[in-house]
Amino acid sequence: MAFRSPVGTEDERNKMPIDIWPKTWVDANAWTGNIPPKYLLGKGNWAYHTGADLNMAGDKDAHAPIYSIGDGVVRFAQLVSKTTWGNLVVINHGIVNGKPLFSRYGHVEDMLVAKGQAVKAGDPIAKVGNQFGVFPYHLHFDISTTIQLDKSPTYWPGLDLQSCRHHFVNPRNWLRENHNNSAEKLPDGLGTSGGGLGTNGGTKPDDVKPLPTWYVIDPQGAQVYKEPSLAAEKTVLLPRGTKVTVDVQKGRKDAALTWGPIIGGNLNGQWVAIRKNDGKESYLSTNPPQ
Question: Which of 5, 54, 178, 287 is least buried, going by the fewest C-beta atoms within 10 A?
Fold first, then answer.
């Protein structure tokens, strides 16, 4: 497993690190060594900044894709508030260098992931937003080497410098040093750094079960519906080979079909048929089509 910048083209993110951030991106609140900058949140409201504020001049980063920095499991992905964090994503990356590792992505739009979803390094998770017009377009991105973000995804240390340095690291330096590093333990459902699935002693709390990726295997594709019924409104047809996350634990059955709700992305909450109840025909599989 490798760790990469959360923004930039594939080529920019995969090159050996010099600056880490793509050359057209700047960090408006950069750390100096292991010292976070102090900045003004509002009139008289100073705080230490926990990570990076990544943006491009002239809002050229508006709606730019944001990527997971490494393999992991989504621990949080939802709207917090239109006046503070906006949409927020937190990912658990397991144990790296003997410490927990969590990445956080703030003020994002068009979230493509949901809590419990497994992601790989470089998977798109959202787009750069402006928190509903509150800020210029930018990505707040930070890295924590404690479990604080698992306990409190919106945690902010304010003017507590000791807590800021305890829970967070200089994200640019950390990515430089771990550009091709591996996790000693990945969250449950992602395997281990040595390969394979089903790691023992994973770091993911018991309330989150990673959701597997399913593939459309029907040559005719898989139709998506608003509700789990062939009589419901149709939305899109997913071509053979399409990857989709489906929560089978929340699935339903009718007289003929087993249905599952789609998790994450633009189709979040819509339904797709997985198989016929008699087992004679399947439309989705956890194995890609041959």
Answer: 287
